[in-house]
Amino acid sequence: MNLSRIHILVVDDERALCAGLQEALRREGYSVDTAHDAPAALKRVEARLYNLVVTDVRLPGSDGLQLLREVRQRSPDTQFIVMTAYGTVENAVTAMKDGAYDYLLKPVDVKRLRAVVVKALELQAVVAENSELRERLRKRSEQPTQLVGESEAVRRLVRTAEEVARSDVTVLLEGESGTGKELVARLIHNRSPRAARPFIFVNCAALTETLVEAELFGHARGSFTGAIADKPGRFHLADGGTLFLDEIGDLGPKGQGDLLRVLEDGMFRMVGGTALQRVDVRIIAATNKNLAEAVATQKFREDLYYRLQIVPILVPPLRDRADDIPLLIESFLEHFAAKYLRRRKQLSGEALQLCQRFPWPGNVRQLRNVVERLVVTCPDPVIGVEALPEFLHTHDREASTFAMRVGMTLAEAEKLLIRQTLSRLTSNREEAARALGVSRRTLQYKLKRYGLLDSQP
After folding, report:
1. Are 261 and 216 spatial neighbours (Cβ–Cβ below 8 Å)?
2. What's the CA gap between 240 and 259, in Å, rounded?
3. Number of helices followed by number of strands (H, E) in the chain
4. SS3 helix, strand, coil % of the chain, rounded to 5?
5. For the segment 343-353, what is each residue's pLDDT rounded down to a tens digit?
6. pLDDT above 70 as % of the chain
7. CB 172 within 8 A of CB 311
8. Going along 265-372, which residue ranges are E strands?
9. How many CA atoms lie within 13 A of 132 on its CB side?
């Protein structure tokens, strides 16, 4: 990805700080502008679409919270990271409830800033960058949803998600990596009565045993070395909204115990705190692992498993809904053309068919990455089959051949050839007959002769 096309605005009245952060982010390859008060920041936002705004909570003439609200009215998908001094952490929490991605304590740790910027931009990449595109996707689907597809698998998934959205029941999303479990979680949140409240994402795989409790429940001032101020946990930030626990199967034993305790009674203590606290949070968990097997091998707590999977929802892999691939490709082409300011593009018919024949082990995420690469690297308005990545061609060549052992009879070889033609090339018998160089009647006779009628359409 060309990071120079990512536009970031740094807003702070401390000019030296602005210049330092600007230089640090420019070294990463981003395009970075600065402003020293809210009016100047708004003027820049009116002139350019920013992917991300890094702003101080306190600004001359306004404040960072008001700036967030005004920018979001103009550009709903712009991500925000707020900077705050120790005494104004409460304002940072308010900013996150208003939609900021995260906050940083001053003095800003540049290494942490770089990491948070990457995560905020990754989140932004999940959704389309302009409302016009989202509206077109909404109209193309039978039901308004962020999930693109018209297959029965997707329609069933959306129906289930919208049904469970009406209640506060705990949901467990299961499916392979890259299938779009976070999109389903956001769909449930956006269709629920909690839609106006925060949607807080937690990557459980990144929570170490020593930090999990503080990350989930926060810590009190003085609870450990370096804890010079109260810090709210993810449960605090999600109060009134939804807490999405991704990769729940990677949560360690301690984290599983801590989570089970709060799920059972809805109460917890901050690390180093004494008072019990209660929040109103709806839990959605997701995993790409088989939790039932993890329970059987004692790698996951059985009581937590049953507490989470009150409503299990399976998000299907892309290979099980290949009919959706053209719609997904079309939406990604449109999205990335807008993102990178490229002209509209489309795949040739042959290229589209090649994409539909591939099983996509990385699922929608892998397809999305391929389309992004094509939009950036292909100058022509029609993307031909020759422009597709080599792994697609390799798979197609391998799928178009099969092995026959020496010593097979002609009848065995003919039976194998017919079966492979119908399963790998086309299930249409008339097309298969043409490919084999025989009449449809002859093919029908051979299917009956070799006992293939019951196994073929």
Report:
1. no
2. 18
3. 20, 16
4. 50, 15, 35
5. 889 999 889 98
6. 89
7. yes
8. 267-268, 277-278, 282-287, 311-314, 346-347
9. 4
Distance CA 128, CA 230 (A): 36
Looking up tokens 């705990």 gives 170
CA distance 102 to 411: 67
Q: With both helix axes pointing from N to C terminus, report the angle between 440-449 and 410-420 in degrees, rounded to the nearest 10.
A: 120
**CA-based nearest residue to 83, from 104, 59, 113:** 104
Q: At what angle do helices 349-357 and 390-399 cross, to 10 degrees?
A: 70
CB within 8 Å of 111: residues ≥ 6 apart: none
Residue 357: is its pLDDT beyond 50? Answer: yes
Q: Are 143 and 283 in contact (CB under 8 A)?
A: no
**Pick from 284, 75, 260, 124: nearest CA to 192:** 284
For residue 300, give the 3-state DSSP assignment: coil
Domains of the chain and any CATH numbers: 3-124 (3.40.50.2300), 165-314 (3.40.50.300), 319-399 (1.10.8.60), 410-449 (1.10.10)
In residues, how long is the chain?
Answer: 457
pTM of the shown model = 0.58
d(CA 70, CA 39): 11
Residue 423 per-residue DSSP state: I
Q: Which residue matches tokens 């920041």?
A: 41
H-only helix segments in 63-109: 64-74, 89-97
**CA distance to 269, 344, 407, per residue, from 239 (Å):** 15, 42, 70
Of 160, 152, 143, 150, nearest in space to 314 by CA: 160
Contacts 24+ apart (CB under 8 A), 211-215: 212/251, 212/252, 212/254, 212/255, 212/258, 213/254, 213/255, 213/258, 213/271, 214/271
pLDDT at 302: 95
Three-class DSSP category at 269: coil
Nearest to 287 by CA among 314, 307, 262: 314
Question: What order of strands is seen across the sheet that includes strand 79-84?
Answer: 31-35, 7-11, 52-56, 79-84, 102-105
Report residue 305 as tokens: 């498993």
**pLDDT score, position 1:** 57
Distance between CA 428 and CA 374 in Å, rounded?
A: 32
| CA–CA separation, 402 and 416 (whole Å) | 9
